[in-house]
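Chapter review: from sequence to fold.
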Amino acid sequence: KTILIVDDDQYNTQTLEVLFHSDGFRTITANQGQQALRLIDTVDLIDVIILDLRMPVLDGFGVLEKIKDNDYSSSIPVLILSANITPNVSERLRQYNVDAIIEKPFDMDELIGHVNNLITVKT
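The token string follows.
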């Protein structure tokens, strides 16, 4: 299964790559929103997108809006992984029908469990 990790913090992406590789996942990373959108358009199959909200140029909300407006990518489950989860942010994310929200710092087992659930529901 393939996970697209979108986060501008290189430490976060490397940590997530190690975590998911050890569980048998394939990962692709993007450190900014436009790069993530290009990957979504070119990679054959992405099973889950893990998306941070705070990124320069095109933030997570901008990425999310473009994902949900695209017929192909709108069916890919999106898990928000961010330190910026306020009630206002949660409400805004519900409008985009995100599949899961996890706040940083996160529990690794919880994150893997959510990703496995999203993949199971998708298939």
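Two observations follow directly from the output. The radius of gyration is 13 Å. The first strand starts at residue 2 and ends at 6.
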